Amino acid sequence: AQYPALRMAYCVHYTMVDVRLSSLEGEFSMEQLKTIGREMSQLLGQNFVCFGHCSLAQVVYHELRALGRSLAVAESCTGGLLGDAFTNIPGVSKVFRGGVICYNNDVKMDLLDVPESLLDQHGAVSSECAIAMASGAAERLSADYGLSVTGFAGPDGGDEKNPLGTIHLGYHSPVGVWCKTVRYTGGREDVKTRAVYTALDWMRRKLQKYKMEEFLCCGGED
User: Fold this and answer.
1) Phi, psi of 217 (to 5 degrees)
2) Of 32, 44, 110, 217, which is most buried by a Cβ count within 10 Å?
3) What is the 3-state secondary structure (H, E, C) of the chain?
4) Prediction pTM value
5) pLDDT, mean of residues 136-150
């Protein structure tokens, strides 16, 4: 191994895994450990979240601050948990415009301009609806980005196409719109919580990819 005296400890949390570096006999200084940590982060690529103890929502917040952009959210099955993840951050109003809890289809249409024809054709639990919700939130709340969640958290609902635990995420950005579908097992609260963390991590990866592409387009210069 490159660093035989290096010790690594893993601490598994609900949303991520902490990796802690140390040396039992003090073989590495703090600066050397930081250097090794930076080398590891480069190897991990987008799977690396941050140094320290930031939450996923905090990482997204810092990425938006760096880009000078704003965010709005739209939620159905998560009932405000996504917005709550952001409002726990002091100073988040600099980037977070607000959110809409649109549990009922009429609310989706009235507050987010989701077309009735889209709901009739694809249903409220669909990728098409998730994208429309994200775009509607961004446009209605004058935000650069929109992030949405819709799905069947259980224990009721679901169908052959979208069984219980199916979650559709929508993402609206200045350069396009995307959707992502995931399926989880477990109880209602567990599915809702996992949906929120998945949405946050998805946006984190999207923002970091966009920032890197923008950096490369500029020739790698500040």
Assistant:
1) -65, -25
2) 32
3) CCCCCCEEEEEECCCCEEEEEECCCCCCCHHHHHHHHHHHHHHHHHHCCCCCCCCHHHHHHHHHHHHCCCEEEEECCCCCHHHHHHHCCCCHHHCEEEEEECCCHHHHHHHHCCCHHHHHHHCCCCHHHHHHHHHHHHHHCCCCEEEEEEECCCCCCCCCCCCCCEEEEEEEECCEEEEEEEECCCCHHHHHHHHHHHHHHHHHHHHHHHHHHHHHHCCCCC
4) 0.90
5) 98
pLDDT greater than 70 at residue 81? yes
Pair of tokens at residue 1: 């191994």
- Residue 93, CA atoms < 13 Å, CB-side half-sphere: 2
* Residue whose structure tokens are 């726990």: 88
Q: Report residue 82 as tokens.
A: 């996504």
